[in-house]
Amino acid sequence: MAKKLGPRAQECSSMAFFFLFLMNFHMLHAEDELDLLLSFKSSINDPFHYLSNWNSSDSFCLWSGITCNNSSRINAIDLSGKNFSGELSFSIFQLPFIKTVNLSNNNFSGSIPFGSVSSLERLDLSNNMLSGKIPQQIGLFSRLKFLDLGGNVLVGEIPVSITNITSLEFLTLASNQLVGQIPKELGQMRSLKWIYFGYNNLSGEIPQEISGLSSLNHLDLVYNNFTGSIPSSLGNLTNLQYLFLYQNKLTGPIPDSIFRLGNLISLDLSDNYLFGEIPELVGQLKNLEILHLFSNKLTGRIPDALSFLPRLQVLQLWSNNFSGEIPKDLGVKNNLTVIDLSTNSLTGKIPEGLCSSGKLFKVILFSNLLEGEIPKNLTTCRSLKRVRLQDNSFSGELPQEFTQLPLVYFLDVSGNNFSGRLESRKWEMSSLQMLNLARNRFLGSLPDSFGSDLIENLDMSQNRFSGAIPRSFGRLSELTNLKISGNQLSGEIPDELSSCKKLVSLDLSNNQLTGKIPESFSEFPVLGQLDLSENQLSGDIPRNLGEIESLVQVNISHNHFHGSLPSTGAFLAINTSAVAGNELLCAGGDTSSSGLPPCRKTIKNHTWWFYIVCILGALFLVISVVPFGFILIRRRLRNLELKRVENEEDEIWELQFFSSKVSKSVTMEDILSSKKEENIISRGKKEISFKGKSILNDMQFIIKELSESNSIPLNFWHEIAEFGKLQHPNIVRLIGICRSDKIAYLIFEYKEGKNLSDIICNLNWERRRKIATGIAKALRFLHCHCSPSVSVGFMSPGKIIIDGKDEPHLRLNLPDDLICFDAKCFISSAYVAPETRDSKDINDKSDMYGFGLILIELLTGKSPADPEFGVHESIVEWARYCYSDCHIDTWIDPMIKENLCINQNEIVEAMNLALHCTATDPTARPCANDAFKTLESAFMTTSSCIKNLKLSSIIT
Questions:
Q1: Residue 601 — very low, low, confident or very high, per pLDDT cuts 50/70/90?
Q2: Residues whose CB falls within 8 Å of the CB of residue 774, separated by 6 or more in sequence, listed in order
Q3: Strand order in 680-683's β-sheet?
Q4: Strands of the 345-347 sheet, one edge to the other
Q5: What is the pLDDT, as a whole number, of residue 536?
Q6: DSSP-assigned letter for residue 220
Q7: Are strands 122-124 and 100-102 parallel, antiparallel or unpaired?
Q8: Which range (417-431, 488-502, 583-597, 809-823) has the least confidence?
């Protein structure tokens, strides 16, 4: 019996076999090269016919993507970004003189083939859907200088054989699903200049042997599971310019040797478990531009040596345990643009020269123990855009110059000891969108102008402001949140406030306001929260206030209101505490939950108008009953009224509308007559949607027919009633239901427009930006202004309608995931968060994941739902890889590439937000309110063209 070869012998045998093939392939003729190319073409899908000129009638040297040498032999193939799919063919790696193969940014699948080409110098297969393990034979490409396999779905460990490619200068395996440790043999690859291993599941310690890579310029190991300490031997990498180790599980102090890497431009060790102090040795990093050490456990003082780094632009040390004072000369000799030292235990004052560079645009110092006044150097810093100083112990007056900075769009000084009067000064903050002065000691009248028509959030609560609410506040047309509670304001509520048509939250509580609630408050179209408690208001509650369908939370407690509580809208379910302290107020209609005594039903002679109302009401009942011939029966369904209709076939139908306008326009006959084949607009497994129209006034609406109506549980209809109350400009409203024992219809408002999925490829950046903002506004309303919060369910561009003004309108999923009552039912949408794929556990965080994916699609033009792209997780990992490695020219949608120079910062910050929204850990995702603010802030930032620099920062 023949003796079985051992592993070593087998490897030698394979190598010998390989070199025999190598000799034969070098003898290939041009005809053979032609056959190999045609074989490659036949194996792939080319949807845009990019390879249409690949035919034998022309020389292959003239074919698209082909470059030949002087001997007319193929030496380069560049087919990047052509939307090819199919399995990667072996034939392309048999070309004998090939030096460059670039198949990146396509949809190739299958495993990585290996060939017999010893001449290959550059291989780029990045951003495809290649799977399986990296083949051991990869090491046979002995002349490679550039190897990029990033952005695929490769698994397994990094093969040791890859370290045989000693000529390799650029190595990227980022954004895959690789596991295991980095091979120690990597230290033998002396030519390496770039290593990108980020966004994998690599573990273990960072090998000391990397220190042998004396040519290394860029080391990126981010978003892995590396443990242990940072090897001190990394200090031997004297040519290193970029060191990115963030988002791992590294512990221990930062080695002193790191601070001797004098060529470092960017150092990011954030989001680890590092402890200890930053040594004064940091002053040796004279070329450092970016220092990110945030989200660690670092302690001690911020070293003075940072003040003497001449090129330092971005300093982010937030969320650590630093103490002591901020270095007094910080900013004087630096080139600062961003500084974030928030959430530490810093004391003392803000350094006088922080804005000496004249380029500082972001100052984030909140949640420390800082004190004193704001230095003049900062108050006159006209480059500032975002300032957050809240929750410290700052004192003194808010400097006059500070309220005249033209670029500041976000200013938060809440939770300090600022004092003085503000009404007499001239505010000239033309870019201001968010102003928070809450929890200070300001006094005098409220300012009547801030020099900006863009203000959306205004919080001046818990101060000592007095006098009347300025009528000029009614000119703040973009205002969504106004909070001036906890002051000493008096006088009546100005009727002009009702001009703020975008107002979602209004809090005037705990003041000394008198008079009535303005009748015009009933005209707020999207008001969700109203707090008028703890005042001296009186009179009746406006009857129509309960007709605001978006209103979900009202507090009118501890005033002097009298009369009957409205029996509609938010007042139906109002609790006792929200109406307490109004002795003359009584419960009318169905407001028994308020705890108020029922209103007496006696009629006084002088209320002659009451008789007219009764007569008109009786006439309305007669007119309603006679023509339609049905019996009106009152019943309770989540405090909403249904009409029960018996038709000519003795079928009982229940009809319910959530809008008085719709109830006057749409009849049951309109609904039933619209159920025609030609009116079908979509068909699913459990529902069919029709387009309907009212005979009375041509009002259009959408009907969703639900089959198996008798199997739908009662609690579903209770929840549907709550959906009917939702009203927001960026949400498609549920306007009614119509059901019998056998079938049910849900009626939605009709929005003229197209699905985002149908038009996204033709949108410019300005339009995409507006759409992203509108979606964020809708989520903020659902998550933050509805009580309880409402989840969309799962989001996709196909569920978002874009109207003629580029305003998005979200179509919400119904309770239980579109009538999914089977316990075995699960969601398979590519836009659903990983934790909800096999369950029905949908919440606000899963909504944010879907929003993040839509943002990625708006930015890249790539869809996670594309079947040729594979499972949606890959697009997230691919986006993380591209974002980390600053390949902005490769990941941005070509349709918006022309906007890159002007809007690059906006685009990069939007991708930053998208990646946080799609974090695997749901708790790491931002809430809708923070996402909206971040997006708005990013879109206010002036951009510049910096192509090879990536700031891995979270907007704070």
A1: low
A2: 730, 807, 808
A3: 643-646, 652-657, 734-739, 744-749, 700-706, 687-693, 680-683
A4: 251-252, 273-276, 297-300, 321-325, 345-347
A5: 95
A6: E
A7: parallel
A8: 809-823
